[in-house]
Amino acid sequence: MAAVVSEGTFHLSDRQCFAILDWAGEQPQDGLVLRAFLASIALAALRPEEALALRVRDVEIAEDGASWLLVHRQAQERREKDSDRAGAVRRVPLCRDLAAILTEETIRRDLHPEDAIFALDDGRPLTAEVYRKVWRQARAAVLQAHELDSPLGRHVSALRDARIAAWLKNGDQTAGHILAVAECAGMSAPRLAERFADCLRKPTRDEIPWDRLEAALALPDLPSQPNRTARRP
Fold first, then answer.
1. How far apart are CA 59 and CA 68, in angstroms?
2. Cβ neighbours of residue 126 closer than 8 Å, sequence gap 6 or more
3. How far apart are CA 98 and CA 109, in angstroms?
4. What is the pTM of this model?
5. Long-range contacts of residues 5-10, Cβ cutoff 8 Å, at least 24 apart
6. Which of 45, 75, 150, 226 could form a disulfide with 163 if both were Cys (CB 3.0 to 4.6 A apart)?
């Protein structure tokens, strides 16, 4: 599937996202943790700052298969326009693939509940400087020459945008569906609709319930003669 380009909006395709994850995982130094970090953005639509803040205790894996990430709002997000719906903590559904990746990382490094999930192989914290450098290298390795000159995947948050776009496109796009996506992404529904307008299906003229709209906007019946208040003598 090719990258989606619509009205100046660029989204990485599934193939490109997974190729970047695979490239990161193949790196001899810190490859596995970098792949897990990028996967948390690509599969759960986390902001990079939110992913870095994840602790082992924030991963809830139930026996019945219902798994969740507890995402803690970061100070930087409180200043972002697209985070005005986010609370202190939000629950994001954890897909099976990401649950397996995070579990493997926890076991590999023998992590405890209070430990940060993403740390470099030498024990140092994973920082923005490190993952941005790796992202630039992965983008150059995976994308084609003409794509490198475009805005496509210019920042690591492109993985988050691609997941949100997929959530929107693969649902029924009812009001409930859009609100659920906004909640998972930590955004307000109006901001989501504005930023990802190219992912929302536009109804045809015949699909718009004009009769119900007209009934909802109709004025109440008015009396034929206005009531006159009797004047006191």
1. 6
2. 30, 33, 34, 37, 52, 118, 119, 120
3. 17
4. 0.81
5. 5/152, 6/198, 7/197, 7/198, 9/196, 9/198, 10/150, 10/151, 10/152, 10/153, 10/158
6. 45
Contact (Cβ atoms closer than 8 angstroms) between residue 105 and residue 36: yes
Query: What are the E-state strand segments in the chain?
Result: 4-6, 9-11, 59-61, 67-72, 89-93
From first to last of its 233 residues, the chain has per-residue pLDDT tens of 444 444 345 799 999 999 999 999 999 999 999 999 999 999 999 999 999 999 999 999 887 778 999 998 875 555 455 555 445 789 999 999 999 999 999 999 999 999 999 999 999 999 999 999 999 999 999 999 999 999 999 999 999 999 999 999 998 888 899 999 999 999 999 999 999 998 988 766 665 666 766 776 766 666 666 566 555 55
Which tokens hold the place of 166? Answer: 């997929």
Count of CB atoms situated within 10 Å of the CB of 192: 24
